[in-house]
Amino acid sequence: MLTAMSCSDDDNTVVPGSSVMMSFCGEDIQTDTRASFTTSMTSFGLSCSVYSSSATASSAAFGNYFLNKKISNNATTEYFWPGSGKKCSFYAYYPCGNSNIILNSTTSSTGSPTYALTIPTDITKQVDFCVAEVKDVAGDYERTVTLPFSHACASISFKIKNTGTEAFTLKSVSFYGVKQSGRYSNGIWSTSGNASTSTSNAMTI
Predict the structure, then answer these.
(1) What Rg, from alpha-carbon coordinates, does the chain have?
(2) Is the full-model pTM beyond 0.85?
């Protein structure tokens, strides 16, 4: 059973201990292998867990400070730092507000979140799902937090070159046994649903 959550504005349960507001900067750390999205990423979904400085992120209640908020990149938020004696962990994903990406964790969960993802069969509606986690930040850090986004999915493309003098038609390129839904948590995928076949249109080369 999936708990569908979109970017929201629920109240938090943590009492801030600082007058300094949090701010965040999302960065793409995989520009060597994939096209960078940093310039186009104006916002992302973000959850923050706050807990005692003697505890660890893995045992902390997920998103107990704020849960699945739509945060503007490179901007100050409405949330204050919790102060000394506390630690924070931040969990972000991009894009936020896409119906095919569901945050499936609530404040009754602990540690890293689980996301449910469905890949549309229409390639024009497919998105680049990216995640970032920054854990165990001091509650009195009071500076901009850099969120290092990595790509949780990979796209597959083909380049076909005609070295002859006459044009020919490639009828199609097909992928077999592809599952189009799954769950992602802490760098691990578990796929689900029936395997399908994806076939391209004919191409004249």
Answers:
(1) 20
(2) no
